[in-house]
Amino acid sequence: MMARIPPFDLFGVLHLTALAVLTIVGAALLILGCRWRGTRTADYLAAGIGIFMILQEVADRGVHHLFYHEPFRNVLPLHLCGVSVFLTAAMLMGRSKFLFEILYFWGIAGASMAILTPDVRYTFPHFLFLSFFLSHALIIVGVAYMMLVYRCRPTGWSLARVLVITNLYMVFVALVDLLLGTNYLFLCQKPEGISLMDWLGPWPWYIAGLEAVGAGLFFLIYVPWLCWDYWPQIDTGPARESPPENPDQPT
Fold this sequence. Notes:
Layout: H1 13-35, H2 40-66, H3 80-94, H4 97-116, H5 127-148, H6 156-180, H7 205-230
């Protein structure tokens, strides 16, 4: 008989410890990448992170399917964070600025929320616990790596493009849900646990609410760059008058 798994304590000791360890490991990878910026070693490190992410996510999907007998159609990486893992790996290995634009918004919005409010069924040191936190943390690390090591950044057009791409992806996933009878992106029904969707009304109206929340969150994520671009143009008032010249000073 399997031992009863205790419920995950949000922001408890285990959660805070996991956040601290991920922060330290992520910071170490970014420091190494910055130290090796402009060298092949930085590229090798990026590729290594990407390969690790693919192997880890394939193993995670395999454990769900082979050991916990979840149907194959339910373990496809079609949730936003699931597809972001593979896109992050491709971005790092190919140093793709196009994928960076997408993952800057998808990764920071989705992965950070997943880590801060994790929906985990297993506790440490279960493989699925480790895989959940590692996969989401490395999405954020991958985005930061592209910014710090390869000097990538989003633009206003990036925000517009990602909003369009996100909606097109939702249409694609909706078709998959219809054909396979799945619930990727929670387009068919809300998740069983308590979530933000509970405040957005019944199906299908909560989908429109999610669209609005997502667009607002994407904009907030872009605000720091907006401030960076326009801060030098902000009028800070009249310039301070220079002190009068000293008439006794020799010329």
